[in-house]
Amino acid sequence: MINKLLDSAQAALADVPDGATVMIGGFGTAGLPDELVMALLAQGARELVVVNNNAGNGETGLAALLAAGRVRKIICSFPRQTDSHHFDALYRAGKIELELVPQGNLAERIRAAGAGIGAFFTPTGAGTELAKGKETREIGGRLQVLEYPIHADFALIKAQRGDRWGNLTYRKTARNFGPIMATAATTTVASIYELAELGAIDPEAVVTPGIYVQRLVCL
Amino acid sequence: MNHVKWTREQMAARVARDIPEGAVVNLGIGLPTLVAAQIPAGFEIILHSENGVLGMGPPPSAGEEDFDLINAGKQPVTLLPGGAFFHHADSFAMMRGGHLDFCVLGGFQVSARGDLANWHTGAPDAIPAVGGAMDLAIGAKKTFVMMEHLTKAGASKIVAECSYPLTAPACVARIYTDLAVLDVTPEGLAVLDRAPGLSHAELEALTGLPLIQQATETD
Asked: Is residue A66 in some structural domain?
């Protein structure tokens, strides 16, 4: 019998090593798997490379992980927010590396990793500071930049319903990066609010098929 | 000079007038957000939000907020009947793939050839954040910019060459300020409208660039 459900977030994250690349779903706080991130904090892994759209809000979740000094580098599109003071302080003190990526390139690089694409050209960022040092080519009369996929060791995502095979549905805009991050990580850990019986999720409505999910934690 | 600047609401109403029914539109954070309130009731314009929404509706009433349903500025919004949710790669494919009819972005500077700078001042102590600006600027069928004409110090934000880092080169179709509406044309910036009481010569003097006078320009 396939059963991806684990008893706790702690059990789901016990083997995250130091130096791991960890994708964390969410856009601001919507879809950010706070419980999984807090379990990662308690687990103690250090020197992490974190991929998230932002760089933490307030005091919990990603902000707490940053504040504890566990993150060596963050790959994101929009670190600066009114309540991103933990990131801001680390960045100004030179204690965290920032790879700033246009949001669409971030999404597409994650998607490309999940789809086995070696690299792709895109006009986004061409002719700007964020393309410095990158290969460019004119395609279809437009200057385009070569962008590489972003793979991760772990993806921590938040879904709404899931079954023991790992099929997932999401809730409203909390979906955001979850479905693509699930495809790009060796081990995807999804938190769900509701465990569904196998077959109870309408197959036409499954957003993330279970093939992309290795571990489930029901909150 | 005794001209009267347009208010932020008047600027937003002027942008809304140029958006036809049926258009799919992304409104950037800040000033462009005001355009939504100027769309006439019953007029069907589909608002896209980068975090995975088409058919975004107005903010909810107090007590009705759902923090799984937010906009790009992370504020609670609503979904209109017919609206849809999707993940980030799909959302940015809509931008990057040329599926959005219009985007309206804020700006720090726009050059005479339509280069846009709106993500970073380049100041050494500033924390850069780009979000979806570069994807929108190059991806929408038409990119409009909405900004004050002058900085607080009185310098024109419409410039020969942007001094701030670019969001994208040659991407802006039309500029809406509190003093004028300008089209970016191969021949230069053409004036569509001027604020009440502002002559063409005065507008040119404030802008510091030659502007093309059109027969349709009204005083």
From this structure: yes
Contacts of A7 (CB under 8 A, 6+ apart): none
Work out the end-to-end distance of chain B between its first and last CA atoms, rounded to an integer number of angstroms. Answer: 14
A142 within domain boundaries: no
Chain-chain contact of B53 with A173 (C-beta, under 8 angstroms): yes
pLDDT tens per residue, range B20-59: 999 999 999 999 999 999 999 999 999 999 999 999 999 9
Disruptive mutation site among A53, A100, A103 for chain B (greatest number of B CBs within 10 Å):
A103
CB contact under 8 A, B130 and A104: no
Cβ contact B161:B111 at 8 Å: yes
Instruction: Look at the pTM and tell me if it is higher than 0.90.
Output: yes
pLDDT digits (tens, 9 = 90+) for A125-163: 999 999 999 999 999 999 999 999 999 999 999 999 999
DSSP code at position B120: -
| Contacts (Cβ under 8 Å, ≥6 apart) of B20 | none
Q: What is the CATH number of the domain that holds A163?
A: 3.40.1080.10
CATH class held by domain B8-207: alpha beta
**Neighbouring C-alpha atoms within 13 Å toward the C-beta of B110:** 31
Are B55 and B61 in contact by the 8 Å Cβ rule? The answer is: no
Query: What's the mean per-residue pLDDT of chain A?
Result: 97
- SS in 3 state form for A172-210? HHHCCCHHHHHHHEEEEEEEECEECCCCCCCHHHCCECH
Residue ranges making up the domain that contains A95: 18-100+151-218
Which B residues in the span 55-74 are in contact with A, Cβ-Cβ below 8 Å?
Answer: 66-70, 74
In a domain, A131, yes or no: no
pLDDT at B123: 87
A102 and B133 within 8 Å at the Cβ level: the answer is yes
Calculate mean pLDDT across residues A195-199: 98
**A70-112 residue pLDDT tens:** 999 999 999 988 889 999 999 999 999 999 999 999 999 999 9
Query: How many distinct structural domains can be found in chain A?
Result: 1
A 10 A CB-CB count for B198 gives: 20
Residues in Cβ contact with B119 at an 8 Å cutoff, skipping those fewer than 6 apart: B128, B129, B130, B131, B133, B134, B165, B167
In a domain, A155, yes or no: yes
